[in-house]
Amino acid sequence: MSLQNVTVIGAGTMGNGIAHVFAQNGFKVTIVDLQKTQLEKALETISKNLDRQFSKGIITDEEKSKTLGNICTETNLSLGVSIADIVIEAATENIDLKLKIFSEIDASAPTNAILATNTSSISITKLAAVTKRPEKVIGMHFMNPVPVMKLVEIINGFATDKTVTESIIILTKQLGKTPCVVNDYPGFIANKILMPMINEAIYSLYEGVAGVEAIDTIMKLGMAHPMGPLQLADFIGLDTCLSIMNVLYNGFGNTKYAPCPLLVNMVAAGRLGAKSGEGFYIYIKGSKELIVSNSFK
């Protein structure tokens, strides 16, 4: 199965990262977003990331130009998917929105096109059920930042055809990534293991077992994690962490997945981590210094 024309739905952090790696590896990419300003921002981000690669000697100036030349943008979803061999949905982690998008791309994409999702926790089987091609629906969960991280978690829905899985494995390797195939259960593998760890770190803070710096330092120096769980939660977005914990809790019906009340309150207060300027740490534009939030000192 030849997959050359790629459409990415969503121009946010994950969407522009996915578009970047496909375009850099010679694929023709269309980024679709309803907001023209988001598309402009995505192209600016990709260009800056390519400049960073150029400054490190990873790519040449010519390769940067070719990569940008492989990308086009579109605000009309139907037009954006009309010639796609594969569509990768990378919209906000909201099941109702994703169900709507999958129904729309199914109606407009070529009948032989694979429909993939970058979801980190939402059921592939549920998304496939709103299409007329459930055997061609699959999860393709990239890690953030996409141009840097090597893993792609490939998730088979209940009806995903083996030939589709094989095609996605080959495609992932063409991107220089490492594919790992898992089955469709809440959180898959990455977040079924990661999010309860983050949630437990938040519980440890909530219960007064240790402070922010101690929790993160112990996990970095004691467990060789590159980033502490509370800093990682800020990086991911506390709203995203809460959403995934709720998927796990509702999906398994097990209290061990219940989100920590502190996490719930922080999201309700708009303290979402790096993207809002404050979570467990305070984030100052242009500074890499980790400053613990005054709420936890």
Core attributes:
alpha/beta; Rossmann fold; N-(1-d-carboxylethyl)-l-norvaline Dehydrogenase, domain 2; eight-stranded mixed β-sheet; two-stranded antiparallel sheet; 10 strands; 46% helix
Describe the fold and architecture.
Helix 11 crosses helix 12 (261-268). This protein folds into two domains: 5-183, Rossmann fold; 191-296, N-(1-d-carboxylethyl)-l-norvaline Dehydrogenase, domain 2 (Orthogonal Bundle). The chain is globular. The chain starts with a strand and ends in a 5-residue tail after the last strand. It is of the alpha/beta class. It is 46% helix and 15% strand. Strand 4 (86-89), helix 5 and strand 5 form a beta-alpha-beta unit.
List the helices and strands and how they pair.
Elements: E1 5-9, H1 13-24, E2 28-32, H2 36-55, H3 61-69, E3 71-74, H4 77-80, E4 86-89, H5 95-108, E5 114-117, H6 124-129, E6 137-142, E7 151-156, H7 162-174, E8 178-183, H8 190-206, H9 212-223, H10 229-236, H11 238-252, H12 261-268, E9 281-282, E10 291-292
Parallel strand pairs: 1-2, 1-4, 2-3, 4-5, 5-6, 7-8
Antiparallel strand pairs: 6-7, 9-10
